[in-house]
Design a protein that fits this description.
The complex is a heteropentamer of chains A (159), B (358), C (156), D (116) and E (390).
Chain B (H helix, E strand, L loop, with lengths): L3 H15 L2 H38 L15 H11 L10 H18 L4 E3 L2 E2 L6 H9 L2 H11 L3 H32 L4 H6 L6 H4 L1 H18 L11 H4 L9 H26 L12 H9 L2 H20 L7 H29 L4
Antiparallel strand pairs in B: 1-2
Chain D lengths: L3 H24 L30 H28 L1 H23 L7
Helix pairs in contact in D: 2-3
Chain E lengths: L30 E6 L11 E7 L2 E8 L7 H5 L7 H5 L7 H16 L5 H29 L4 H21 L8 E2 L2 E2 L7 H24 L2 H7 L7 H6 L4 H5 L7 H4 L20 H23 L20 E8 L4 E8 L7 E5 L1 H7 L1 H5 L4 H11 L3 H5 L1
Antiparallel strand pairs in E: 1-2, 2-3, 4-5, 6-7, 7-8
Helix pairs in contact in E: 3-4, 4-5, 4-11, 4-14, 5-6, 6-11, 11-14
Chain lengths: 159, 358, 156, 116, 390
């Protein structure tokens, strides 16, 4: 009879454990408030991206179309993937001296891993990470970006 | 009162009055054919959508909600997609059997429809050995599955088909014993008689605890017979990718998929007929008013309500439990369900003979 | 056991072992011919080094002193005494061959395959010495310093 | 409707399945290449054929099933008449089940129900 | 600039198939060789297992690696000591923080750098959050391998909360690159403490739900108990670490044995189960969730003030020598071995990844079990394929 007793208690425990599991899923079934789905393209307006989110590298320009990049290539050296290529030119200062300055800030988004090392390395805080994340394009060449706006120049006083 | 029985009766009368008997019979056949085909299509659409919605709610998701209002047309879109897919046949496959298998599964599913009473007087063929017929025909689908697995020339398919074969035949036994216990109580194999015997109450309630045990065993066994989780070893995707239908694509896959859902509907319909009184409304003792209100609900709604409740139960299982291992699956049947159902049948017999049921 | 005690134990069996105590753990360099017996001694005798947690090779060909040098580095810990030992074996880079230790520490089987794959060290008597991560028809040994792949390597 | 229903249902099933497959044949413009006809084996070219003899424990269960299913067939007619026959029916089926169950226990002892 | 990829000639390997009834190539009579992976629902990632079956019983499992091999060790030889850390996030991407932490520790060991106490506590907090997130994903995926789909979504709900916290403080959800030599990249976000406390409150209730749904479930227990038994001696011999070894009764928690940062100052238990089967490994991880919560609860209100980063030179140069650091990731012992020749880049770098050794025990554990068991064993090994291939 001990065998029978064990047999029945086994079945009882098995069934009760199964019912407990069903209670969990069943309780979610009747509580639609628990649904956590975000309907992505629809909720774009009220989506909150944290300000530290690393989406892509951008260069900040002020209202006078001036940036703070001196073309020192610290970011280029810091980058592990050769994402950044800085093309420099020589400006002539009002005193007539030749001075190295930024010509184009080439940024390969397709190689970038958003590691933030370039932003950390920048001595003048000229670049920062933007919060964009929708990077998909139809052609890879569109991911090659020039970060300094056309006609922009170095902000006065930035060394 | 709205009733399907009146519609079928009057349409039949009209047919035989208007045409001579041969043409009337042919027309009747065509109408039945169209009805079952559309039933198949509608059931497929509704059940797949229901499964996805139920799963989503249990998994704290929204589920399909893009195609049509609240995602209602999602399965229609899926069907269209499957139609647009190319149906591949592997080079090494046994082409004849490979293409035959989905037909076998579909025919098996369709044939079981015959004795099911969808509503009062709404039955294709009230065969006098209805219950036996159902359990006989339902095992035909295993041939289709074995055929599909064997013909695919794929190792996963073969293993899946073998598992499925062993599983379906094993669980048919305990399902059979549960069905027999109701036959003992009702004293007839005919579906309409079984339903009629539940005039005063459903067997689930009238048969005391043994009837409830029989019901539980029936539900477990049919879950296994339809290859549903937690018994979905034939298509256990984490082990055998997709089991017996690994190589099927396009419309042939859709037919297997549809047949799975049709089978669920059928076994739940039989469960509802045997244990929950089919289209019989719920009557409680001497509450005259209550019983009267219940009578006003059309019998087809009663039937569908009960069936869909059972379907929901089976879906609930699927989205809660992990899958059994193949040896555990068989030991569950042979060491637990079969001995219990045999013993249970003896108890039911005792109850039937002594007239202890309500 | 402290580094000193381990050293004393080793000196008793390998009087000519070369020790280096500058790092965190005691390092000992043994001759390639003695390696297998030394490994067995490490595992089974006084030191009980049962846990081989790191096995790798270093190609010294890019340095001035080691043009033809390749060393195997074995990191051992004893789960009994909780002490750690680093063993180094020098190989000839042009024909690197060493006895396998996969029969002593089972984990060495995969690690040695990896070293074979990436450095080209042949482990004698290894049960299944095949390429592990690279394809069977791959040419060259990528972790050697002179490995060049014109297609997949980008020079920064 | 009578037995003609079976014919109708079979035809309906065939029409339904064949119709679907034919419609999709019309809609699909397939392409042919060598890889498409390969059996799926997780992206690796399949080695050997599944159609060789290999050892599975399923056959034993199929045999056991056969025995039990034949017994089950005898139970159906019995079940219909239980109420009319009364006590004798219970005694008879108890004997019948006893024999069946003894056989079942024997199979269990012999290890036929162990998965291999 | 763009790399060309060699296209493998598939046709050359295709074996002629058809009505060949003679027998499988390379298989004995009655044996069946099947491939699981690289495209298989149960191998999370691109692991390829060649399984020899006798009936449904496994005779041999042979892992084939390399589908995601990127030669990270070679790459690191040309990256500076600041730069190479970010690559290690891509190895075990589920415990990216801990990998980065291990590398930072090794560089700091070489530089003999003192880490400010604030940075130490932040690092430990991040490690433990990562451990919870990693175990969450393992739990969901494990249940899914065994055929229960719903736990996966519940696990992801909690994991997403952690990811949101990470995103707010570290700026990324998966590959954070937050640990730098000398400390952390930037200070924690002002909301960090509050959000972590909210999360812990929510999480404590959810673990009980996990028990109802999976741990105590009879089917789950039957699937995992007595499956894939690994003895303590075998676990050591195969170099298994982490929950896999602890499930076999081996004490191997680096946090206890060789404490780093502030682990010697917080109270927590090393979970040891002795059965050595899949269920034991499962229990170790589930109990570790509670221990991680315990560590976080002790530290979250006690983050000391001060710098979050030690002062370092712009260009890091490690002295000549060899440095090895060990750290406990969610999967076991992660070792970083740096050989420096005194330059700005490592001469040789070796990552001792836990998954690699754990995988080598798979064949030993799964011989004689069913295909279904293989999934239970793989699930409890908690393999991350990039970590193995590197």
């Amino acid at each position: 009879m001990a065998f029978l007793k064990q047999y029945i208690s086994e079945i009882y425990q098995a069934v009760s454990s199964l019912l407990k599991g069903m209670k969990t899923t069943g309780s979610y079934f009747v509580r639609p408030k628990e649904i956590i789905t975000q309907q992505y393209p629809d909720n774009r307006a009220d989506m909150k991206i944290p300000e530290r989110f690393r989406g892509e590298v951008v260069m900040t320009h002020d209202e006078n179309n001036e940036h703070a990049c001196t073309g020192c290539t610290a970011c280029e050296l810091a980058c592990p993937n050769a994402t950044i290529k800085i093309v420099t030119k020589f400006d002539t200062t009002p005193e007539g001296k030749k001075k190295k300055a930024l010509d184009t800030f080439v940024y390969h988004l397709e190689l970038c891993t958003m590691c933030n090392l370039c932003v950390e390395a920048c001595p003048t805080s000229a670049i920062k990470m933007a919060q964009t994340f929708e990077h998909s394009v139809y052609d890879r060449s569109q991911l090659l970006k020039k970060l300094n706006k056309p006609g922009s120049k170095l902000r006065a006083g930035v060394e | 009162m709205f009733s399907l029985e009146n519609i079928t009766d009057s349409s039949q009368k009209w047919l035989y009055a208007t045409f001579n008997s041969t043409i009337a019979l042919v027309l009747q056949c065509v109408i039945v054919m169209l009805l079952v085909i559309s039933l198949f299509a509608v059931l497929g659409l509704v059940l797949v959508l229901m499964e996805r919605k139920v799963a989503a709610r249990m998994q704290i998701r929204l589920g399909p909600n893009r195609v049509g209002p609240k995602g209602m047309l999602q399965t229609a879109a899926d069907t269209l997609k499957l139609m647009m897919k190319e149906g591949l046949t592997p080079d090494g496959a046994d082409k004849f059997l490979f293409n035959l298998a989905p037909f076998v599964v579909m025919i098996a599913g369709m044939l079981i429809m015959a004795p099911i009473a969808f509503a009062k007087g709404f039955q294709i063929w009230d065969i006098n050995i209805g219950v036996l017929y159902v359990s006989a025909v339902s095992s035909v689908s295993v041939i289709g599955i074995l055929m599909a697995g064997w013909a695919s020339n794929n190792k996963y398919s073969l293993l899946g088909a073998m598992r499925s074969g062993a599983q379906i035949v094993s669980y048919e036994l305990s399902a059979g014993f549960s069905i027999v216990s109701i036959v003992v109580l009702a004293g007839s194999l005919q579906m309409s008689d079984i339903i009629a015997s539940q005039q005063t109450g459903w067997w689930l309630f009238r048969g005391h605890i043994p009837a409830i045990i029989a019901f539980v065993i029936f539900i477990i066994a049919v879950t296994a017979e339809t290859n549903r989780a937690p018994f979905d070893l034939a298509e256990a995707e984490s082990e055998l990718t997709a089991g017996f239908h690994t190589e099927y694509s396009g419309m042939k896959f859709a037919l297997f998929f549809l047949a799975e859902y049709i089978n669920i509907f059928i076994v739940c319909a039989i469960g509802a007929t045997l244990f929950l009184g089919g289209w019989m409304p719920l009557h409680v003792g001497h509450w005259k008013g209550f019983n009267h209100v219940m009578d006003y609900i059309p019998s087809s709604l009663w039937f569908l309500g009960k069936t869909f409740f059972l379907i929901f139960l089976i879906m609930w299982f699927r989205w809660t439990f992990p899958r059994l291992r193949v040896d555990q699956l068989l030991s569950l049947e042979w060491k637990y369900l079969l001995p219990i159902s045999m013993f249970n049948l003896l108890l039911i017999t005792l109850i039937a003979i002594m007239g202890w049921h309500f | 056991m402290t580094n000193g005690e381990i050293k004393q134990h080793i000196v008793t069996v390998r009087p000519n072992g070369v020790f280096d105590e500058t790092g965190e753990w005691l390092q000992v360099q043994v001759d390639i011919s003695e390696w297998k017996t030394f490994a067995q001694w490490l595992r089974n005798d006084a030191l009980q080094m049962d846990f081989l947690f790191c096995l790798t090779g270093i190609d010294w060909s890019a340095t001035a002193t080691g043009k033809t040098l390749l060393t195997m580095v074995y990191h051992f810990t004893s789960t009994v005494f909780r002490h750690t030992l680093v063993v180094k074996v020098k190989l000839d880079r042009n024909n690197p061959e060493i006895e396998t230790v996969s029969d002593i520490w089972r984990t060495a089987e995969f690690h040695e395959r990896e070293v074979f794959d990436l450095f080209g060290v042949k482990f004698l008597h290894h049960p299944d010495l095949r390429r592990l991560v690279l394809t069977d028809d791959f040419e060259g040994y990528p972790l050697r310093k002179d490995f060049e792949d014109p297609i997949n390597m980008i020079k920064l | 409707m009578g037995p003609i229903a079976l014919l109708i249902l079979t035809i309906a099933a065939i029409l339904f399945s064949a119709g679907g497959i034919l419609v999709s044949k019309f809609l699909v413009r397939g392409s042919v290449n060598a890889q498409k006809g390969q059996p799926y084996e997780c992206g690796i070219p399949a080695e050997g054929s599944p159609w060789n003899q290999f050892n599975v424990g399923y056959y034993l269960f199929a045999l056991l099933f056969l025995i039990f299913d034949v017994e089950l067939i005898f139970v159906y007619p019995w079940a219909v008449v239980v109420k009319k026959v009364g006590w004798m029916a219970l005694v008879e089926i108890a004997i019948f089940f006893f024999i069946l169950f003894t056989g079942f226990l024997y199979a269990h002892k012999k290890g036929a129900l162990k998965w291999m | 600039m763009y790399r060309e990829t060699k296209i493998l000639n598939v046709d050359s390997k295709v074996s002629p198939i058809g009505g060949d009834l003679e027998g499988a190539v390379g298989a004995d009579e009655g044996e069946l060789v099947i491939n699981v992976g690289p495209q298989h629902p149960a191998t999370h990632g691109v692991l390829h297992l060649v399984i020899t079956l006798q009936g449904e019983t496994i005779q041999k499992v042979e892992p084939h690696l390399g589908y995601i091999h990127r030669s990270i060790e070679k790459m690191c030889e040309s990256l500076s000591y600041r730069q190479f850390i970010y690559v290690t996030s891509r190895m075990d991407y589920l415990s990216a923080h801990i990998n980065n932490h291990g590398c930072a520790l090794c560089v700091e060991k070489g530089l003999q750098l003192e880490i400010p106490p604030r940075a130490q506590v932040i690092r430990v907090l991040m490690d433990e959050l990562t451990r919870i997130a990693s175990h969450e994903l393992w739990w969901g995926a494990m249940a899914m391998d065994l055929g229960a789909f719903t736990p996966f979504f519940y696990a992801f709900r909690e994991r997403e909360t952690i990811n949101d916290i990470m995103e707010e403080t570290c700026g990324a959800r998966l590959t954070m690159n937050y640990m730098v030599p000398g400390g952390v990249m930037y200070d924690i976000h002002p909301n960090f403490q509050k959000r972590v406390k909210d999360f812990i409150q929510l999480f404590n209730n959810k673990i009980d739900e996990y028990d109802d749904l999976v741990t105590n479930n009879i089917i789950f227990q039957n699937r995992t108990k007595g499956v894939g038994i690994l003895s303590a001696a075998d676990a050591i011999s195969y170099g298994c670490t982490g929950p896999v070894a602890r499930g076999s009764g081996v004490t191997c928690d680096i946090r206890k044995l060789y404490p780093y940062e502030v682990y010697d100052k917080v109270a927590f238990d090393e979970i040891i189960e002795t059965a050595g089967d899949s269920y034991a490994r499962y229990l170790v991880r589930i109990k570790e969730l509670r221990q991680s919560v315990r560590i976080i609860e002790q530290l979250i209100d006690n983050i000391p003030d001060g710098d979050f980063q030690a002062k370092t030179k712009a260009v890091l140069k490690l002295p000549r020598g060899e440095f090895y650091s060990r750290i406990e990731t969610a999967r076991g012992e992660f070792g970083v071995y740096i050989v420096s020749e005194g330059g700005t880049t490592p001469y040789r770098i070796k990552f001792r990844s836990p998954g690699f050794s754990n995988l080598s025990a798979l064949d030993h554990m799964s011989r004689g079990s069913k295909i279904g068991d293989l999934m239970a064993i793989m699930g409890t090994l908690d393999l991350v394929i990039p970590d193995i291939d590197r």
